[in-house]
Q: What sequence folds into this?
């Protein structure tokens, strides 16, 4: 009886000291995440390429998830649509995420404070000058704090006219966030040469290595894999020797499940010479 | 002993918050499920060892998690429990650090949950199993080994047509109870991260 009371008292103390106000069920969650739609042009032009994206403003103490959320959470989802339909739309671009470790050592990847997800679109060939185009974005997310998760969704939209020219707008926003995107291995901006070894072959488990040779001393790397649900990535180790860095890991297909694609997308994250967090996107062929 | 450990853990959390606790004891499917002794929300003792010879389903819950809310709205767990009836023993485990017996009991009544909820505020049972999310499922065979662990189904976002969803626990139970081999013994679980104390 006394032991139980002590446990209850300690639990209460813990709750008071460790729990943020977000534990209360009566919390107003409407301002946890505010999505805003931006387009990089004021008007569209026939056949023109433009960009549209959503800036998610995230309340302090909360985070949203990357396209591969880690061991828990839900990838933020953004569907860009147009009316009239049929605008070829490019891949959604994800800024380099941060890695966070939730209680119990549960690893997550995502964003705090704000994140801008965008994609390039091309004006469909049948859309002519004088018409108006509605660009809308359906956003779905899971916002989590240390103690609570709250799902959210919102549709945001804007209407643009089709004119003789497309006039740039929101340039700083788009250019600023473009710098936070991962670099592809063949980009001239990448200060390293990356090679990948390993193959599942006919086996379901194998060892892989991502080797990189840097222009200067190899920086401390963070390896962020984005495996499909059917692939387990484990035993990650890293070693730097002067200009060279090697990331070793094992990948295994979970029994009874199938691989949806033949490559594993991953990020090699590092701080550049200015201390800015950057990443190289590395596709690891699995077979 | 257990109380002292709890106090020590809590003290270190207060000083060094946020606490990190090295993940221990993630167990492979096929291996023995970690033994545990706990108390359910009604104050009854629950011991895994006492259930040897039965097929047990462990379901990690957190009533505040939107994934758990959705599944209880859709009656996913209840339908499974009803389908297999006496062939299984269903146990929920709540490792949410801030939910005590009273809170668990309140939710149990509200949702008319017919099985026991093991109150694991210290997170010891959760960590022994490597429970990472709510929900996180474990099917334990009659010999005490893990038959299946991971996600409840293949539809984390709940977008799929329910008829199209693969309920991994249902498939595993169906095969196991018929004496057939279970093809999918482990999947990655989905949900909110378990709200451990540290």
A:
């Amino acid at each position: 009886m006394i032991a139980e009371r002590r446990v209850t008292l300690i639990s209460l103390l813990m709750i008071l000291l460790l729990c943020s106000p977000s534990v209360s069920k009566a919390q107003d969650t409407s301002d946890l995440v505010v999505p805003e739609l931006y387009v990089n042009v004021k008007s569209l032009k026939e056949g023109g390429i433009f960009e549209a994206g959503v800036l998610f403003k995230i309340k302090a103490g909360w985070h949203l998830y990357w396209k591969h959320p880690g061991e828990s959470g839900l990838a933020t989802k953004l569907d860009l649509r147009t009316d009239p339909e049929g605008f070829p739309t490019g891949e959604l671009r994800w800024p380099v995420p941060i890695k966070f470790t939730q209680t119990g050592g549960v690893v997550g990847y995502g964003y705090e404070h704000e994140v801008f997800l965008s994609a390039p679109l091309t004006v469909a060939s049948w859309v002519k000058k004088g018409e108006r185009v509605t660009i809308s974005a359906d956003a779905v997310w899971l916002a989590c704090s240390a103690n609570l998760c709250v799902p959210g969704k919102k549709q945001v939209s804007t209407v643009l006219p089709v004119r003789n020219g497309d006039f740039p707008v929101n340039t700083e926003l788009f250019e600023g966030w473009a710098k936070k995107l991962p670099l592809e291995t063949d980009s001239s901006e990448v200060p390293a040469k990356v090679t990948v070894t390993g193959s599942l072959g006919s086996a379901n488990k194998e060892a892989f290595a991502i080797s990189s040779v840097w222009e200067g001393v190899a920086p401390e790397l963070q390896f962020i894999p984005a495996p499909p649900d059917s692939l387990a990535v484990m035993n990650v180790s890293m070693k730097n020797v002067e200009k060279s860095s090697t990331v070793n890991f094992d990948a295994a297909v979970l029994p009874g499940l199938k691989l949806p694609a033949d490559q594993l997308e991953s990020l090699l994250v590092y701080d550049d010479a200015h201390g800015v967090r950057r990443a190289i996107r590395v596709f690891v062929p699995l077979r | 002993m257990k109380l002292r450990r709890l106090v020590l853990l809590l003290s270190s959390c207060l000083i060094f918050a946020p606490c990190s606790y090295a993940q221990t004891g993630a167990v492979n499917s096929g291996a023995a499920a970690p033994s545990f002794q706990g108390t359910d929300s009604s104050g009854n003792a629950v011991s895994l060892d006492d259930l040897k010879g039965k097929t047990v389903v462990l379901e990690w819950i957190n009533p505040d998690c939107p994934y758990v809310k959705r599944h209880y709205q859709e009656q996913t767990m209840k339908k499974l429990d009803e389908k297999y009836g006496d062939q299984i023993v269903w146990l929920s485990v709540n490792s949410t650090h801030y939910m005590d017996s009273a809170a668990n009991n309140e939710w149990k009544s509200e949702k008319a949950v017919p099985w026991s909820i093991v109150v694991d505020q210290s997170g010891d049972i959760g960590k022994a199993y490597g429970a990472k999310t709510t929900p996180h499922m474990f099917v334990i065979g009659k010999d005490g080994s893990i038959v299946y662990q991971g996600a409840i189904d293949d539809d984390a976002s709940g977008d799929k047509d329910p008829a199209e969803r693969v309920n991994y626990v249902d498939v595993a139970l169906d095969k196991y109870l018929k004496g057939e081999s279970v093809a999918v013994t482990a999947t990655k679980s989905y949900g909110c991260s378990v709200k451990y104390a540290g």
